[in-house]
Predict the structure.
Amino acid sequence: MYTPRPLDTLNILIRSLHVVAVVFLIGGIAPSHVVAGVARRTSDPKGQLALWVAWLRMGKVSGMSALLMIATGVTLTFTMNFGFFPGDHLWLALKQGILCLALVTIGLMMGPVRAAEKAVQEAVNAGGGMTPEIAGLIKKPANLGRMLDLFGCLNLILALWRPGE
Ligand code: HEM
């Protein structure tokens, strides 16, 4: 028989916020790939630039969701007395390991994202369109973003599967 573990009100609140953050984060993956795919196939430079503006804005929403997800995940780690890299909860140790990889990836992404945002904003202000230079600047954040999407999906699977529990 399924017996729910005792959760106090604060834990229910933090856990709910964690899952809300997960919904925003994971929920943004598919739309962002659709927007990037359409942007790559659009031939009109102004239309293409507008789609990359949308893609970068979606990245900001994902970034904020990731902050909430990390804050609530770390808080749950303490409030539920799991601790960091617990040997008796492999799924959580793996989730935390993936978090470390994700933080390194985010660190590598910050500079390229800022450079791409600046170039895109300048082109928008000048009333211009997509250029090969901007396309080159967007390539790195787009590739690193794919890795973050993979990390997010792995963490979701680990949270639901819970190997080692
Ligand atoms: C994109 C990344 C993440 C996703 C998709 C994710 C997903 C989830 C989901 C769906 C749950 C609820 C599981 C359930 O109720 O059965 C959960 C719970 C939890 N997550 Fe995450 N999570 C992520 C990142 C993290 C991180 C980075 C940490 C810790 C540093 C963390 C720690 C926890 C803890 C402690 C719980 C509570 C487990 C329990 O209720 O027993 N999560 N996570």
